[in-house]
Amino acid sequence: MPAKKKSSPPKKATKAKKAKKGEPLATYRAKRDFGVTPEPSPEVQLPHADKPRFVVQEHHARALHWDFRLERDGVLPSWAVPKGLPPDPKVNHLAVQTEDHPLSYIDFEGEIPKGEYGGGTVKVWDAGWYDLEKWEPKEVMFTLHGDRVQGKYVLIKTRGNQWLMHRMDPPQDPTREPFPSGLRPMLAKKGTLPADDSAFGFEIAWGGRRVLVYVEGGRIEVEDADGNNVTDRYPELSRLGRAVGSTEVVLDGELVGLDRDEQPMAGSPDRRDVETDSALRRAARDHPVAVMLFDVLYLDGHMTTELTYTERRSRLEGLNLAGGNWQTPSYHKGDGAALLEAARGQGLPGVVAKRLDSAYAIGKRSADWVLVSA
Ligand code: MN
Question: How far away, in angstroms, is 70 Cα from ligand 1 center?
Answer without folding.
Answer: 14
